[in-house]
């Protein structure tokens, strides 16, 4: 960031840790140089975790610098002495504001400061931003929201984690609690329980093949409830064959599909997970590269899907630029569609900090394979808005045959519009998400006055299906739509837009759930582990439902948004968080009758070959049996970490499949199997695999 600002403004020379010109000195932070101090900073006794010391609620929160950041902080302080004012150039968002303000407060700086607020890192955008610097005080409310968020996470995280860990965890088994993390875990747990407890039911449908003079179509028998008796279905099917039906109801309607909204970060991550199988973290990393290093896209950590009117001329310019690149095959369409009256793209009132993601006029030509994939998603979504809506006509037909009513849904494609950009992608083919089946047609010239002959019929056996597990993509989408799942009808409409987490935090939340072993990813499906499941069950047993409530956390996130706009009190929010923190600790202390054993909070990884129980657990550097059996397996074997599949193979059949190892002498690779029999001090025996010549 500092280098790009220097290149845009010009006239800078490089020094150790900063850039200097006649007018400016540019230096930088490496992420969060300063953060909220740990509990032991307030009192040394907090170094030891004791339930009796909780809750820990500082009268005023202290800031502390990490050991690795002190050199850079010292440099910032010395350079600041040469300056009469400061420009805050951190990310134009809540967390970026916190990074600067924490440093400013920690170093006790007194210079007035301005704020650079931009959504693109092109030279033109940076120069324009510096010509329109804002007063730093204009963002005081944003900092209040950032501070409230940090302190809320500290209070709930520090106290909740210590309370649950001292009661249910222990040495090497921290039970982590988080203001947003725990409700997201609850979403994954609840969905998994729905699937586990789902009991599939068999039911039958009757399909009739109906023929007019020039049109053939299929109808589905309409019933008030699912038909579970196959004999009844068979009888109806036989009865209607060869009989004439009449059209008792026909509705036709012209419709259109507008281009999908421009990407915000969540939509981009969801699409990349669905289409490219990219984890959310990978998509964010690539998007940041495209923004910071390559300057090919606008600010990615946005939660908006719209642009403002002053963005439209820039978008027109980028459209023209793309016509002269390898993306020209997609850069068809008409600039007239991207205009201020098009509310599918231009809605300034829907923009909070940053507009939607779209390409800049710096068109890249040397992207990596994965960068190209993400960039192409963004380019095609952008260019779709230069095309008209896709037009189609729906036909709903009710045909009565021998007193039985059959329904048919036809979607007749009229013109593809923006969908021409996606003609080779299955994801954008038309589909009906309702329970009613839809037949896709072109040139469907239906005559409702004409009779229909039942040429054939068949009985189809069906099974009810459970909901799908969350993937990283659908989880992020669910976090964005948390308000829509509120059951309280009095709150549902008012809170439909509230979200869980922010674009800047959702990726980290998912990664934290993985690293803390609360969830696993199984063929893209997110599933809770035993540890994760036990935590949610314990929270609910203690009547701490709010701690696992996505709705409540989303409401808090909404309140933080109001604080950032100066429309809510930061003090009132902080008081609410303190009361909730006290409730968490009180419930853990009081609930002595809770019967969840500590073993339930340890993930077992397989069956012990000695005691035959599901008791293999992970220690720091090896796997062992928690029942004190002699088995021990080092996690690292011959320089390579065992996978979960390797471990399961060892425990079930005594050996792994062939594994490729690097030669210790640096002369290529070799293949071998690891054997449990004869292992000593955690080191497994080896069986070389002969390779075919």
Automatic annotation (TrEMBL):
Q: Which domain of life is it from?
A: Bacteria
Q: Which residues form the Topo IA-type catalytic domain?
A: 139-585
Q: Which InterPro entries is this protein grouped with?
A: Topo_IA, Topo_IA_2, Topo_IA_AS, Topo_IA_cen, Topo_IA_cen_sub1, Topo_IA_cen_sub2, Topo_IA_cen_sub3, Topo_IA_core_domain
Keyword Metal-binding belongs to the record: yes
Concerning SMART domains, the annotation shows: TOP1Ac, TOP1Bc, TOPRIM
According to the UniProt entry, what is the EC number of this protein? 5.6.2.1
Query: Sorted alphabetically, which Pfam families does this protein's record hold?
Result: Topoisom_bac, Toprim
Protein name, entry field: DNA topoisomerase
